[in-house]
Each structure stands twice: as structure tokens, then as C-alpha cells.
Amino acid sequence: MSDRTPPTIALWLLQQCGSGYRAESLAGDLIEEYRRGRSLSWLWLQVAAAVRVALMRFLWTPRWSGVLGASFRLAAEVSAVLALVEIVQQNRRTLAADEMMHLWVIVIAAALINLASIGVLASTRAFRRKPAHSFAGALMLALTLAFGVVSLGVGELTRADTARGSAASDPPGTDTARLDASAQCSANQSGRPQSNPSQSGASQRGDRHCRN
Amino acid sequence: MRKREYLGQLELMVLLAAIRPAKDAYGVLISREIAEKSGREVALASVYAALERLEKKGLVMSTLGEPTAERGGKARTYFEPTALGLKEARDAQETLLRLSSGLTHMGGEIA
User: Fold this and answer.
1) Strand partners, B77
2) Is B66 helix (H, G, I), strand (E, B) or coil?
3) Which residues in chain A are closer than 8 Å to B75, comparing Cβ atoms?
4) pTM of the model
5) Which residues in B lie closer than 8 A to residue A1 (C-beta atoms)?
6) pLDDT at position A128, please?
7) Which of A17, A83, A129, B2 could form an S-S bond across to A50 if both were Cys, CB 3.0 to 4.6 Å?
8) Smallest Cα–Cα separation from A111: which of A137, A84, A85, A92?
9) Where are the beta strands (DSSP E) in chain B?
């Protein structure tokens, strides 16, 4: 058996991971094995495992698991609501009012609302039943959170894509084109007929700006 | 009637590995025994965490040894199963044997 000593920082970490004779025994076991020829990487893996066990024990105390659960649930609920708002806004930007009443838009919106509601309700029930060790609750919250993040991400990407497409289709002198479009929008809303057929392009742009 | 405590897989393996005639089971030996018999490396910290849970359930008891220089002046903690722990281990063994009888019907063999 050699007399090599483990790194000081590893021993310090082990001391932080526990208290009493159990932490001392663990540190003693690791020193013993290290001196018997175990590698430095083995030692660090063992220290990492000790830190993980200590961290899990700390986080799963009733007080901290309650705080974590509440924060996680709040984040999931907020993200689900934001995602739904984003989806509705996105539909308002890209679809006309009559298109929004299509059956498929309503079905998709209802499905998304149901998914978010089921996620939040299931996680709330699971946490209420067994707050400290609810894997199911954590899983449902993670799914709800993922749903929110993905929806927001897709919404942002679609918005960026729409903005890019809009910028690309606008000819040089965009300000003038926008003014034309605004004027056309006002004309459309007041119900005036179009006198010039060549204004149909501006009219289409105007419709899009009106919806925006 | 005492509420039956069910053991997790790691807890059961640690409890079985702690049953040694020489009563010299400590962290390293238990971890090594599990690695040899099951082929799974288990972190010492996980072994100690399982031992702590077993001790809380009254299935093992611990005694503190003498500090030695080869361990950097730190003492060993020896573990041995209590009577309740031995009973629990036997019950688990019988239950597993009964449950695994289905394997023989499927063409498997019980070691």
C-alpha cells in the first residue's frame, strides 16, 4: 500500500458532503482504496457521487422540495399560459378573422389548451398527493414546461420568418409602400371600391398590414 | 401489526452483502462484494446512503472501529444485520424464489 494522499480539494468536498462519523468513514474508505492503487479518476468519480448524494438529500428535504415544487409548477403554468397567448397572437397575425374560425384552427387550439390544462392539473394533483418524491408530478411539470418552451420557440421562429418574408417582399422605398398600404387599408375599411385594378398588389399588402 | 417496509434493489443488495460471518462488513467490502456478485460498480456514497436508510429501518447496526494511519487517521464503521434485518433478507429471498418460479415455465433457469 502506497502513502499517496488524495487531492486536498477532494477531501474538503467530502467533508462538506456529510457530517459525523459516516462522512469520516466514507473519506477513510476512499483514502484506503486510493492508496491501494485506485486511479485519480476513480477517486473523483466517487467524490462526484458523494456530492450528488448529498445534494439530492439536501434538495429532497420537505422544505426545499416544497419550494422547488412550487417554483417549478409556477414556471410551468406561466409558460403554458404564455404559450397559449403566443399561439393565439400568432394566429391573429397570420390568419384573417374568417380563417381563424376554421374547424382545424379551433381543433388545434382546443387540443393545445387541453394539453396544457391536463399537464398543470395532473402535476398539481401528483404534488398534492406526495409532495416530496413525486416523480410523476415532476415529469408532468417538465412536459408542460417543455410544451411552453417549444410553443414559444416555434412562435418566435414563425414571427421572425413572417417578418423576414414581409421585408423581402417589400420593394425599395418601403415607407411609400407602407403609406400606400395604410391608405388602402383605410379605403377597404370604409368600403370604398377600388377604382384602379393596378392597385391590387398594394391592396394585398394592405390586407396584411391591416391584420397586423 | 408492524407496517412492512419494502426494500429497494440497492438496499437489498447492500443488506445481503453486509451479511458476513466475520462481521467485518464496511463500506469498501460491501461495495466490492456487490461489484463481484452483480457485476455492477456502486459508488461508495450510494452504499453509505443505503446503509443509513437500512439503519434507520432497524435492519443493520453499526459500530465504530479504531482510526488507522492507512486511512488517513479516519475510523472504519462496521455494519452487521440485526435479527430483523436477517428476517427481512430471508423473506425477500423466499418472495423472489416464489415469484421467479414463472421463469422455469418460460424455459429459464433459477441459479
Assistant:
1) B64
2) strand
3) 21, 24-25, 28
4) 0.55
5) 70
6) 59
7) A17
8) A84
9) 60-68, 74-81
